[in-house]
Amino acid sequence: MNLQPEKGELCVIIGAGPAGLTAAHELARLGTRSVVLEKDSLVGGISRTVNHKGYRCDIGGHRFFTKVRVVRKLWEEIMGDDFLVRPRLSRIYYNNRFFDYPLRIRNTLKGLGLVESFLMGLSYIRARLFPEREEKTFEQWVSNRFGRRLFGTFFKSYTEKVWGMSCSEISADWARQRIKNLDFMAAARNALVGAKTHGNKVVTSLIDQFHYPRLGSGMMWERLQAKLAEKHIETRLNQQVIRIHHTGGRVTAVTARDGQGRETRVDGEHFIASMPLRDLIRAMDPPPPQDVGNAANSLRYRDFLTVMLVVDAPEVFQDNWVYVHSPEVKVGRIQNFKNWSPEMVPDPSKTSLGLEYFAQEGDELWTMSDDDLIDLARSECVRLGFATAGNVMDGAVVRMPKAYPVYDSKHGESVEAIRNWIGTLKNLHPVGRNGQHRYNNMDHSMVSAMCAARVVRGAEMDIWDVGVDKAYLEEPETVGDVERENMITNEVIRDTFARYDAPAMGTALGLMAAIVLFLMSMTLILKGGEPIGPTLMLLSNYLPGYRMTLVGVVIGALQAGGWAFLFGVLLARAINLVVGMIEGLLLRRIEIVRTMEDGD
Amino acid sequence: MAEKSRIDLEWKMLDRAVARLRAGVMAVVFGMSAACALFGATAWLLIRGSKNIGQHLNLLGNFFPGYAVTWPGAFIGFGYAFVTGAVIAWCIAWIYNIVVHMRNKRKSGGKNVLPGGA
């Protein structure tokens, strides 16, 4: 069966996740026809929402937070009044205790105890004074910034659960991408200014709240699929792309296979692919050069499964999700879907929990039967104290292969080799998290898709280099209200963290002290009398040589100026030290947030 | 890349940001503080009362003609202290800002790298 272009150019989009559907929407807006091929029976990719007897379950947690205006506008346009603003609460469960997340000093001290906190402080000081010179691994990177002890407590076990390998094998690139490029201004704005209202709408804070569709993150993509259908843009489900035909530096068609094994060839002028990069290369017909194939084969993914448990209790815990660091259980994170949106459960007297396990396709966890997985989740839930054996009423399992691209030590080289080769195919544009093998958030994936759509329409940009920056997508003369507000708050933040210039402060205080003492002394001398200024003369105890004569006054004024200069320098340095400490605390807090924010 | 360079630029700006003193604000704050302090000190001595009332504070009359430890003097002193405190603070801020400007200019090779005074 063939699907041939009817009239005008046709763009074939592989994958109906956030990136694929966004690309189709953007192409429609720009006047280019497209067809979306999705291998699963649901749209949304990793952001889908699965419905089990009315209980809705997301694959991981997906906060809708972005600073990209076009993305935010698109979300708002799609969801309308169904876009809720939800409070955020998430904590860490470790050693049978809850720790606030992001970490708060008082709560952490209380949870760890004074001795452990003290040791952690010593470890932090040691790391700052004697950091490891080499920073190739995640372990080295985090230890250098937070100390080995804090790394061991709050990073090691959870990170190893997520990635299924030792922190000493995980590339520091992962931490760098998540943390080092942090937008300090944006985070500081949120920390200092908090949630701001913009018109009638609340601009969500990075930390305190987020937007979320009423019926789960998948609602966004189901709505977008429906909108596309209204514009006669077809989303074909259960169509797995198995071959990508190319010749003469251009992709000409793809072949997709449905659930019954029937194959369909779809010809097109342009191809936007959000399928995993490894699968994309493997599907190439003819195959790429050997080294590119090897590079693709070396790419690794982390798979993910959620066990949803229905608990017969109106409230289990207050958090949207809990990070489970305790190494004695396999579960990595627990979502409380009802706290994301009350309408995620059909009955308010019940709660649905999503116990998330990070796995590898084919490993023991992945191949466990659904019943065994539900039993495991139930027993761990009971062990953690979130349920009793009797009040877990039902369960379901959702498996999501290739949920996370793995940042191992070789991934950078491999992606570069693949990217270079794909660059020779002028009409193939990989987008999204798996499409670019990059740990993107949803908004970043959407931006890459919007840019790909513009490249299809003739724009010149390298979509591999696209970040979540408005400059790629917005008209240059358009400066939105939010950006204007940000400019103003940036100035406030700069002022807040600006340092005093110590020599300037010393000079100002020194000069004024000298002038004031000189003028006061000269006033008394000119007034005359006997003795002249006995009280002021007491200063000679501190300013040797100070007398009520012209020379004595000059000597005294110079000394007063010197002491005041010193005082000014020390005062400025003391203020700067305190400002630096506040900035450092804020920075550490943001870094912790960025380090832990995986799986979104 | 653009995102990275924007963040780099923000970091640079933050690192280079030098606080300025607002001369007007400092003048008002210092002026009012000095005025209230002198008024309060004078009033305290007057309320407490004694034979040789405020013999040391009276010495300020050398610099502030008309000031004495009396109720009218307290008000006169309030005015003098306000003006003196304000002038000194304004001068401190002015000198500080000039020195900062000169040092910044020298560091940036004559270019004003941080518009907006920070």
What does it look like?
The complex is a heterodimer of chains A (600) and B (118). By secondary structure, chain A is of the alpha/beta class. Among the domains of chain A are: 2-51 and 59-80 and 211-299 and 410-475, FAD/NAD(P)-binding domain (3-Layer(bba) Sandwich), CATH 3.50.50; 502-586, no CATH class. Helices cover 44% and strands 20% of the residues of chain A. Chain A is built from 20 helices and 23 strands. In chain A, strands 8-7-19-20-21-18-22 form a seven-stranded mixed β-sheet, with helices on both faces. In chain A, a hairpin with a 2-residue loop joins strand 4 (49-52) and strand 5. The longest helix of chain A has 47 residues, at 550-596. Chain A is elongated, with a radius of gyration of 31 Å. Chain B is mainly α. Chain B has one domain (22-107). Helices cover 66% and strands 0% of the residues of chain B. Chain B has helices at 2-16, 23-48, 71-107. The longest helix of chain B is centred in the C-terminal third of the chain and has 37 residues, at 71-107. The A-B interface holds A 181-185, 465, 467-469, 471-472, 490-491, 493-495, 497-501, 503-505, 507-509, 511-512, 515-516, 520, 523-524, 527, 533, 535 and B 1-4, 6-7, 10-11, 13-14, 17-21, 56, 59, 62-63, 88, 91-97, 99-100, 103, 114, 116, 118.
